[in-house]
Design a protein that fits this description.
469 residues; alpha/beta; Rossmann fold; UDP-N-acetylmuramoyl-L-alanine:D-glutamate ligase; Protein-Tyrosine Phosphatase, Chain A; 3 domains; seven-stranded mixed beta sheet; 15 helices; globular
Length: 469
């Protein structure tokens, strides 16, 4: 059933999304509505996303129920939806066609001659957002589909013209193998999602398959700072453009990197050995220099001018949950970041350190039991740049707790390396601890892919209330 091509059929008019409140599913719903389909969807709970969809005349059901399958020609679901889901069961009983989210996204991408997918273990959302800003600056009128919220487009999706489509390509459960982009960016390849992949070699082979799906006249834009990425390039038959901040022989590189007091970089952009522009970033960290270089190389390959690249990058001020400043209270800055892999944690803390605060309080919520267990050693070495780490309970996401790993184990492991971690099980106790300990000119950095951002919001609210009273 998943081979059915929605966009080639004239019999599909009513499409139902199971889990429509997800960041990608909601965007796909908007795209299909713009193409003229009647859209409905369900989710376990109401959210700002589902409310926004309702405002766009999309029928939303709260809770999954077989009764939600009404007058559907097609049902879209995500890889996280189990076969026992009542809506999926009902659709299949009635013979209604079903399609997985990534397959649908891949089919939508085929409509665009210049589809552009950004992949990698880390940095996808930020780099996709940077590229989107450049393409908007260049008046290419792209359709944009991002795994985060970008204020410049009012959310995670923008409906544009019919030539350019830019999106993220996630490797989890090899979803990106449903995509056939004209241009693919490979940011980095590291061990992650080990509940699915056997090891890093399995991950590398998956990325290689993805790269081979780019047509011969298309392009791979690859980071040669990453040895796992560069080791695959001799097996690629399409055009290859290389970049790297530490690779002088790459097609695109940088010189004269300087950081301001906020940790934001400026640098000289180098193409094929020649300086082309002075770049100023408004997001902190050395990792964002690399992300911006990827966006510049890819967008120039698609025809964007150097001037539009420079202006687009300077206009980018970040996406939600990527070093997002949530507020300042009593001269304590509260920042939230989605980092949930050891490498992401390191670069995010490095960016925080470059902000020149008195003390960095890192409130970390591990994401999934599998990742915490299998990368325990790597996690233990990721927090050197924090002055104090507060570890909350593990966010289970799609997994069941088997009792094999616990946040207290991670805390003990961190303390064997940097001796700066404590474990606190609930958000209220974390907030109370921060209210007692944090001082002016400190930074409180909530970190994780779950709901740890609520700690920062609670802290700001309670400190504000205390200040008023």
């Amino acid at each position: 059933m998943e081979q059915f091509n929605l966009l080639d059929s004239k019999n599909i008019k009513n499409v139902h999304f199971v889990g429509i409140g997800g960041i990608s599913m909601s965007g796909l719903a908007e795209i299909l509505k713009n193409l003229g389909y009647n859209i409905s969807g369900s989710d376990m709970k109401s959210s700002n996303i589902t409310k926004k969809l309702e405002e766009e005349d999309i029928k939303i059901y709260i809770g999954h129920n077989e009764q939600n399958i009404k007058n559907c020609d097609l049902v879209v679901y995500t890889a996280a939806v189990k076969d026992s889901n009542p809506e999926l069961v009902k659709a299949r009983q009635l013979g209604i066609k079903t399609i997985e989210r990534a397959v649908l996204l891949g089919q939508i991408m085929k409509k665009y001659p210049f589809s552009f997918a950004i992949s990698g273990t880390h940095g996808k959302t930020t780099t996709t957002s940077m590229a989107s800003m450049i393409m908007l600056q260049s008046n290419l009128n792209p359709t944009i589909h991002i795994g985060g919220e970008l204020d410049a487009i009012g959310g995670n999706t923008r409906i544009g013209g019919d030539e350019y489509f830019v999106t993220e390509a996630c490797e989890y459960v090899e979803s990106f193998l449903k995509f056939y982009p004209y241009l693919a960016v490979i940011l980095n390849i590291e061990a992650d999602h080990l509940d699915y992949f056997k090891d890093v070699n399995h991950i590398k082979q998956s990325f290689l398959k993805f790269m081979k799906q780019v047509p011969k006249d298309g392009y791979i834009v690859a980071c040669v700072d990453d040895s796992n990425v560069s080791s695959l390039l001799n097996q690629i038959s399409c055009n290859v453009v290389t970049y790297g901040i530490n690779s002088t022989n790459a097609n695109w590189t940088v010189q004269n990197i300087k950081f301001d007091d906020s940790g934001c970089a400026s640098y000289d952009l180098i193409k094929d050995g020649e300086k082309t522009a002075a770049i100023k970033l408004c997001v902190p960290g050395l990792h964002n220099v690399s992300n911006s270089l990827a966006a510049a190389a890819a967008c120039h390959t698609l025809g964007c001018s150097i001037n539009d690249i420079a202006n687009g990058l300077e206009a980018f001020t970040g996406t939600h949950r990527r070093f997002e400043v949530k507020g300042v209270v009593d001269d304590i800055k509260v920042v939230d970041d989605y980092a949930h892999h050891p490498s992401e944690i390191k670069v995010t803390l490095e960016a925080a350190k470059s902000n020149h605060h008195s003390k960095i309080w890192c409130v970390f919520q591990p994401h999934t039991y599998t990742r915490t267990k299998l990368l325990l050693d790597e996690f233990s070495e990721a927090f050197y740049d924090a002055d104090e780490v507060i570890v909350s309970d593990i966010y289970s996401a799609r997994e069941i707790d088997t009792g094999e790993i616990h946040s207290s184990i991670l805390t003990e492991k961190i303390n064997t390396k940097s001796n700066n971690a404590i474990y606190k099980s609930d958000f209220n106790s974390i907030v109370e601890y921060l209210k007692e300990k944090a001082s002016p000119n400190d930074i409180v950095l909530t970190m994780g892919a779950g709901d740890i951002y609520k700690v920062g919001e609670m802290f700001l609210k309670e400190k504000d209330i205390a200040a008023v009273s």
